[in-house]
Each structure stands twice: as structure tokens, then as C-alpha cells.
């Protein structure tokens, strides 16, 4: 499952709905990214590439499903104006065992960071720079 | 006709999000050379290719990728999702 | 935060409350363990060691906080009779960045598996055997 | 007086969850030897120490741990939390 949206989402409700649908899973891992108020940041603006965003995320999910035995996968990513403390995106993975669920969630996060066409800008500030460590993180998979 | 898309600071430097161009460029690099020759704003946007990424028909690729049959080319900085 | 209880819990509501309280965190990771219906399993009975359970989990949390810069940590673990599909336990970690949140959550899970005094029994069946791989998982930390 | 606690199949084999004993055992291993000598049920429960774990005063320890000053000793199989 994959959603790209401007609207906020309720991470807890999403985790519960995801878990309820993941029949047979023994392990559910979720990651939520939140707008941090670093250095006086007031809000974040996220630009994306409609069309490519969806196909890039779908390809990352397909790759995770090929690598690990997963009961289900969920990715939600927002774009547009995001307030301080608001959820930016979330990933959830369900599997029979914890190792697959954890590894797949980390894999999805590493690839979403550097391979999904989103760009963050600090409102009233500059574009967030990609970090070399995020690119390097892909090497382990 | 090729649709060009610009995102993030590439869009800001060039001053528009998309445009259509008529080009005979064989590769992405040839297309960039044509654009740089056209206007100062493009020269600025494409000054440092190491800080740019390119997608042809919505797939990440390299600057030497061929453009034969392509419909859409997008230029943008390294992605910062997640 | 640490809770050892017989009652079920709402993992989504816990994730939301945890996230709301983790001011300054950019990353929240949660893990939920669920009773799987393997091989005709109908329910799970979990025995624990009151007193030691709490102190062992508190020590594991303290160790995670010493190793990673964490905004907050939550562990909930149930005991008693657990129905199929019911949540067994959950872990949540909050940190500025995703790597610390993921690593701390995996560390907590690995240690809770083999170092917190819980024993699972299949109702109408046998005691769940500890897996060598769970003991081996501790070697990476 | 030392309180002994048994969990999971150790409890089932011995047939009780806890008991108090008067013992002069210097170590956990000595205590186990005393218990085995007492009754067949203990001999069965303690037959294979590699499948057992011990906590003295609620801290995991080894079978050669001293009992001086200890108040509570618990025997149980490897833990299966999470």
C-alpha cells in the first residue's frame, strides 16, 4: 500500500489498521518521520515529482518484498506545507518474524531518503541538503 | 517535443517548473549544453552537475543517457525524502 | 516508560501518545509483537517473574539510553492468557534521527527476547523453546 | 531461609511455584545437589543444566555463583520474551 498526499495522517490509526489487515504476521514495525524544530525552523515545505514519486516508491516496495518475506508493507509520504511536530511520512512492515520486519523498514527508509523524488525546504530558509551518510546508507543493502 | 521539468532550487534558478523544447540533442549532456548556451539562468542552474540528478521518463539515469524516444526529462538536486 | 500488564493495549494509541510526548524527536520507531496462529495455535499463556521482570526491562532500557541518544523509550509487555492476533508486547523509540531510533528498537527487542524473564506456552501445547538465533542476536550489540 | 522460585516447565516438573528452604549450600551448584538428593522430581528438573538459567536475588547469574547473603534463587528455562 502506498499513499502520497498533502493531508496529515494519524500514524497510530494507520498502524492499527495496518496490523489488523496483516493476518498471520507476528511482527509489525513502524517508522514515523516528524518535522523537528531545529535552529528556529517553523515549518517545512516538501516538493515532489507527481507520477515519478508513486512509481519510485512502488519500485522500492517491490524490491523490499523481493528481499524479505513480508506479510504487508505500507508507505505514506506527504508533500506541501508541514507544520512543526507534524508527521512527514511513515513506513510500516509486517512479517512473521521481527528481523525481516525491522530490516525491510530500514531498507525502505534508506531508499525513500535518497531515491524517492521529494525535496524539503525550510520555510523562510533554504533547501535541505542531502547528506552523504544517507547516500552511503544504501551500500549496506 | 520534449517536456523538461525542474524541481527544488533548479526550478528556482531557471525560474519555471516546466517547459517544452524542440531539440535534436542525442544525450542528456547534449541537452544541457544547448540549455546553457541559451541563457545565463540555465548556465547557473547547470554549473555543477555533481549537485544535480536527472530522470528520463521518470527514471533516474546518468547524464550520458540517450534521449532517443524520450518524452520527459527532469532535473533536480539530490532527493531528501523520508 | 515501562509497563508490565495482563490487559491488552492499543498499539496505535500508544504510538500516538508516545510521539506526542517525544518533543524534538524527528524519528519514532515502534515494534509490536502479535500472537501468530501457527500450527493450530489457539492462544498463548505467558508466565513472568514479577519484580525481576520490571528490573530487567528497566536495565535494558537504561542500556539503550546509554548507547544511543534517545528522546524517549517505551516498553509494554503483557503476561497471562493472550488470544490469537492479540498484541503481546511493544517497544517504541524516539530520537532526532532514524538510525538511533531503529538501532535502539532492535537492541531492545533482542534483549527482551532473551534477557527479560518471560516464558511463552502454547495453550494446550508445550512451552515455546528459546531459539539459538535469539541468543546469537545479542552478539552484535 | 532462602526462597526458591520455579518458572515454566521447571515449576511444572517440581510441582510447585515456590518454597522456602534452610540450607548451608555455598553456591547455586551446591544447592542444586541438595535438591536433587531430596527427591526424584528435582532430579528430573535439574537433569540438564544447559537448558536451565538461574537468578540470584533477581539477577541472572551462573551456577557457580555464591549464595552468601542471598534471599531468593529462581530457576527457569531460557527466556522467551518479546
Could you walk me through the main structural features you see in this protein, from its secondary elements to its overall organization?
The complex is a heterotetramer, with two copies of chain A (141 residues) and two copies of chain B (82 residues). Chain A is an alpha+beta fold. Chain A has a single domain, classed as Molybdopterin biosynthesis MoaE subunit (Aldehyde Oxidoreductase, domain 3, Alpha-Beta Complex). Chain A has four helices and seven strands; from the N terminus they run βαββαβββαβα. In chain A, α2 runs antiparallel to α3. Chain A is globular and about 45 Å long. The model of chain A has no long low-confidence stretch (mean pLDDT 96). Chain B has helices at residues 8-14, 28-38, 40-45; strands spanning 2-6, 18-21, 53-56, 59-61, 72-76. Chain B has one domain: Beta-grasp domain (Ubiquitin-like (UB roll), Roll), CATH 3.10.20.30. With 82 residues, chain B is of the alpha+beta class. Chains in contact: A-B, A-C, C-D. At the A-B interface, α2, α3 and β7 of A face α1 of B.
In short:
The complex is a heterotetramer, with 2 copies of chain A (141 residues) and 2 copies of chain B (82 residues). Chain A is of the alpha+beta class.
By CATH, the superfamily of chain B comes out as Beta-grasp domain
Q: Can you give the helix content of chain A as a percent range?
A: 25-40%
CATH topology of chain B: Ubiquitin-like (UB roll)
**What name is given to the CATH topology of chain A?**
Aldehyde Oxidoreductase, domain 3
Write down the CATH class of chain B: Alpha Beta
> Are there runs of chain B of 5+ residues with pLDDT below 50, and where?
none
Q: Examine the secondary-structure arrangement and name the CATH architecture of chain B.
A: Roll
What's the oligomerization state? heterotetramer
Helix content of chain B: 25-40%
The total beta strand count of chain A reads 7
- Whole-angstrom Rg of chain B: 12 Å
Can you identify the CATH superfamily of chain A?
A: Molybdopterin biosynthesis MoaE subunit
Note the gap between the termini of chain B.
34 Å
Classify the beta-strand content of chain A into a percent band: 25-35%
What is the CATH architecture annotation of chain A?
Alpha-Beta Complex
